[in-house]
Amino acid sequence: MVSTGRHFLQIPGPTNTPDRVLRAMAAPTIDHRGPQFAELAREVLEGLQPVFGTTQPIVIYPASGTGAWEAALVNTLSPGDKVLCFETGHFATLWQEMAGRLGLEVDFVPGDWRHGVDPQQVSDRLTADPDHAIKAVLVVHNETSTGVTSRIPEVREAIDRTGHPALFMVDTISSLASIEYRHDDWGVDVTVAGSQKGLMLPPGLSFNAISAKALEASRSARLRRSFWDWQPIIEANQRGFFPYTPATHLLYGLREALQMLSEEGLPTVFARHQRHAEATRLAVRGWGLEVLCADEREHSGSLTGVIVPDGHDADQVRAVVLDRWNMSLGTGLGKLAGRIFRIGHLGDFNDLMLAGTLAGVQMGLIAAGVPIKPAGVNAALERLQKP
Ligand code: PLP
């Protein structure tokens, strides 16, 4: 079937790439060892710092987010080190599996995929570790599989209360540049991020923001690493270069995306995401359906997980929406497969795009035979009527 108009890419990342970013990437390749590249590298490395809320080094990898997960671990830890992880959802589960495969010992605190990390559990586990066997606490800031955001400052306070020296690593792959985040102020040691969500770029870049403490830990960490090693990258970056051929075109795009974020202003970006998330929840509740996130303090600004009533298949709703209205919604991942769909409302997005998205979801639910009240879209529009 021929589709007219734009596809609605309402998965929680990769997100819509703005035309400005696409145009910025449509440029000739330059010498990655020449002065023009050095200027580009300087601009993006500096421009990223306010987005992470840091004045410390940021390493850029030509890799998906999974690579940056691995980089965070192999740069700071040694074989047999213990890491404390929390089962907030699919991505937290994958990160701890990777830690296990890399030869780390994982303490994986079970969770119900509807709540973020409980700060009390963090302090309980660390208090029960007087010998400091735990070397790092790993938290996914925004669980893309559930739409639940963990309260990072409270987790930091919980670590501090115990006086435990573990490194604090946070995955911001679906929160950076969408939901407020402060690497320095919140005392995070390694922040992991990716290009394809709030940064509005295609997939292909990922990041580690690195505290002085993490950098220090990397000097004695013994997990084997080569490509992921921070040190040669940081050294080359100081001259505006990389130790390998960088993803020049994604860096062109990054420069433009950073410019767009700076024009809008990060507080406005965060408020926009919160407002769209709020309108989406009003729609879900207007349909008489349930939002997956079970704690009012932890709703994600970047996506909403919607529970489909028993006896109905969330993937069937997604299939109808794609087939009839040319819109992609996020699938349920891991143990949520078939039970939820996810509405992405992050990145380059506005009120009318959200209105169109929610209209498509409402029509899709009805077409798939899910019993809903057709009041969701109106509830969202009422919210969008206000600033
Ligand atoms: N962490 C989170 C929170 C994610 O949402 C994702 C991907 O969606 C990943 C990690 C893995 O990143 P990637 O698929 O880019 O390797």
Short description:
42% of the residues lie in helices and 15% in strands.
Can you put this structure into words, describing what you see?
This protein has 387 residues and is an alpha/beta fold. It folds into two domains: 8-15 and 265-384, Aspartate Aminotransferase, domain 1, CATH 3.90.1150.10; 19-262, Type I PLP-dependent aspartate aminotransferase-like (Major domain) (Aspartate Aminotransferase, domain 2). It has helices at residues 19-25, 35-52, 65-76, 90-101, 119-127, 152-162, 212-220, 230-238, 248-264, 266-286, 314-325, 351-367, 376-385; strands at 8-10, 58-61, 82-86, 105-109, 134-140, 142-143, 148-149, 167-171, 190-194, 206-210, 290-291, 303-307, 327-329, 340-344. The model has no long low-confidence stretch (mean pLDDT 98). Residues 13, 64-66, 91, 140, 144, 171, 173-174, 194, 203 line the site of pyridoxal-5'-phosphate (PLP).
Q: Keywords, please?
A:
globular; Aspartate Aminotransferase, domain 1; binds pyridoxal-5'-phosphate; alpha/beta; Aspartate Aminotransferase, domain 2; seven-stranded mixed β-sheet; 387 residues
Mean pLDDT comes to 98
Helix content: 40-55%
What's the CATH architecture name of the largest domain? 3-Layer(aba) Sandwich
Number of domains: 2
Shape, principal axes of CA atoms: globular
Terminal Cα span: 38 Å
CATH class of the largest domain: Alpha Beta
Q: Supply the CATH superfamily name of the largest domain.
A: Type I PLP-dependent aspartate aminotransferase-like (Major domain)
